[in-house]
Protein: CubicO group peptidase (Beta-lactamase class C family)
Organism: Kitasatospora atroaurantiaca
Amino acid sequence: MPRARNWAATAAAVLEDCLDPLTADGGLPGGVITAGTADGVRHTVAAGIVAPECGPEPPDEHTRYDVASLTKVVATWPLVGRAVDAGLLDLDAPVHTYLPGIPPSAPGAALTVRQILTHTTGLRADTHFERYLDRGTPLAELICEEPLISAPGTEHRYIDRGFILLGLLLTALHGRELDRSAGELWRELGMTETLYGPVARGPDVAPTEPRLTGAPRLWGTVHDPSAAMMGGIAGHAGVFTTTSDLASFAERTLGSPWLAESMRPTAFIEPGLHRGLAWIIAEDGAVAYHHGFTGTSLHLAPRTGRYLAICTNAVYHGWDKARLAPLRDLALRTIADGT
């Protein structure tokens, strides 16, 4: 236990030294980092403020952030794993098996859940659901009717469309909305602060950016425009959570067989990085991680039982990929150290 406590405290301090300058120079309002281990040791640090709208107080482990694409791994991915364990879902069955409204002849009808999880579907990369407005056709059918841009299973291309389709599949599979299934899962994992939006505005919720120039900032409503068009509940985005709840998720996930299966490198991304089932796999299979567009990250290292949960609203001043690169690179090095 002392060794785990020392690692958590040291890791958090190292990352805090990187986060502090990012908030001090105004690059982002603030952020929270929780480092911990599977046996319940946690150490949390914070920097900056939640946002100017929320007053001078710093964020903490209970501040809710829109975690954007972390939705893929804290909502959709575990629900898929549970459905597989229950015998309700076959990773290699075509999606039209579970969404019978999709014509078997549609270009995307034969895509599998495994291909969706590994981002090898060949679905078009852009989303642009506004093209579908007033079509009167279910969204899953519209997605699958689009021509594919590469042969399924042949090329890794990170996109949202697949996880959007997967969220619709889970809704059909369980006969209830995705937020209800996810909410039940989170309650079982002790994640009492996690939910799909909207969330009431307040100093415990971090705003992001305006969707339109001159409009008010998004505050408690989903940042992702495609998820917004779906009512804020989608398989790829829409979840609000805290580093405290991400810590609970990590503690319950690190030793799971579903994570072990998901960490098998499947699709090549670039030297040193592969895609498993949803997660990016790094450090020769020792680390799984995922990022969120708004400025969030979750890293898991099951061999050592370590994790890092990072929440920021880096998109507050508009998205700049380079802004968080030093922090994210440091997080990967820190969790991999000693694996």
Summary: The radius of gyration is 19 Å.
